[in-house]
Design brief:
mainly beta, 35% strand, elongated
């Protein structure tokens, strides 16, 4: 046979995610008691079980490489105990089902679909997960794929009692894309899992949209977080790529870095947080370039434990406090001759190079006094405090340690807004 024939055959096999078998069959499964259980007992590797419209009984265990495909209106309903579907075989596809009725145990991570470490290359696509504790639990498989699903958590539980939309543990090279996740504890919680990719997902009404811990070399891109407590919480991870994400109205922080080091953070748009656009705590050697931080109470809250970070080409627009930094060191936020745009920086550009002629310092001694001694706010309108602020502006040598941008930009960089949309 020709090489083209084999390439076409292998490509088709990759799409369905199952091995080619001479005995593969398509098996219709009616919505009748025990019909699905009987079909699973007889199925062989490569078979397609096509579930008809109606309610099918769960929970079920899939222990061979097959496709579980739902016709429009097909629902797989658990009995309120454990996980609805447990996958214990490689190359399994679960597609097109309404999946509901898991148990409520966080200890056993009761889920709509549980992928065990045997479930390598599983494909969970195009499903609706409704009223489960956890939507999908990826617990150990390699190269799994979770895409185009709607995952809505239990709204009858308090937020801390709910499960995560997608829980990931030790699942290298997992790809999660084009999912809509609402009402869970965390949208996606990654724990101890390297080289995962989370992209083009939408999150709403969760605690953290993305909660990433001990997940080195992961990529988080083109996601949208709306009205969560924190958009993207990145902790104890190294060499992450955080690019082209949106955080809109997340209540505490849009982006949070806690012991996250050597990350590339670029092209993100964070706006309208009542607290902080970006919070960095003991986060080192990160590149923060080409982001927009807009209309937050604090643009960047930067702690003294963070070092060797590179800030450039960012736009700080209309934040009540552009930067909050309490420390004695002077930190330069200019990289390779370019600083950042600050909407409150009034300056001239005599040579027309796009860089302001005067440096920008977001904080002065009065700011630091107010942050460390909040009761001093009673004196902010006094002539003495106003004189101190004016004196520091005229004599920068009197300023304490803090952030300084020696090459502030005259205009906000033209940054492309991330485009995120559901594929289905």
């Amino acid at each position: 046979m020709t090489r083209l024939f084999w390439q076409t055959l292998l490509g088709a096999t990759a799409l369905v995610g199952v091995s080619v078998s001479a005995h593969a069959a398509e098996i219709p499964v009616p919505a009748q008691p025990d019909a699905l259980a009987r079909a699973l007992e007889k199925a062989q590797d490569g078979d397609v079980l096509r579930l008809s419209a109606g309610i099918h009984q769960g929970p079920i265990i899939i222990d061979r490489s097959l496709v579980l495909k739902g016709e429009p209106g097909a629902e797989l309903k658990g009995n309120g105990k454990g996980s609805v579907i447990t996958v214990e075989a490689p190359d399994v596809v679960v597609d097109g089902l309404v999946i509901t009725g898991s148990g409520l145990s966080n200890q056993t991570i009761d889920s709509g679909v549980k992928l065990t470490k045997k479930a390598d290359r599983a494909r969970i696509t195009g499903n609706k997960f409704l009223n489960n504790l956890v939507g999908v639990d990826a617990h150990g498989p390699d190269d799994a794929y979770v895409a185009d699903n709607l995952i809505e958590g239990r709204r009858d539980l308090r937020p801390n009692e709910r499960g995560n939309g997608i829980y990931v543990w030790n699942s290298p090279r997992l790809v999660v894309e084009f999912n809509t996740i609402k009402y869970g504890r965390d949208g996606i919680f990654v724990n101890t899992s390297p080289n995962d990719t989370l992209r083009n997902n939408y999150f709403e009404n969760t605690r953290f949209a993305v909660h990433y811990m001990y997940g080195n070399k992961g990529t988080i891109s083109n996601n949208v977080s709306v009205d969560n407590h924190i958009g993207y919480a990145l902790m104890f991870s190294d060499k992450l790529t955080i690019t082209n994400n949106i955080s809109d109205g997340d209540r505490d922080h849009g982006l949070m870095l806690n012991y996250a080091n050597n990350a590339v953070i670029t092209g993100n748009h964070v706006k309208a947080s009542p607290e902080k656009c970006l919070f960095m705590y003991n986060a080192n050697k990160n590149k923060v370039d080409g982001n927009t931080f807009e209309r937050c109470e604090i643009g960047v809250h930067f702690t003294a434990g963070s070092a060797k970070n590179k800030f450039s080409n960012n736009a700080f627009i209309g934040n009540k406090t552009q930067v909050k930094y309490v420390g004695t060191r002077h930190l330069e936020w200019t990289y390779e001759g370019r600083g950042n745009f600050w909407s409150d920086h009034s300056a001239f550009d005599m040579n027309g190079d796009g860089v302001a002629d005067t440096a920008y310092r977001p904080n002065d001694m009065v700011d630091q006094i107010l942050w460390t001694q909040p009761t001093a706010k009673l004196l902010t309108g006094s002539p003495a405090v106003q004189l101190l602020s004016w004196t520091q502006s005229q004599f920068p040598a009197l300023l304490p340690g803090g952030i300084v941008d020696k090459k502030p930009l005259m205009h906000a960089p033209e940054l492309a807004k991330p485009k995120v949309g559901a594929r289905r």
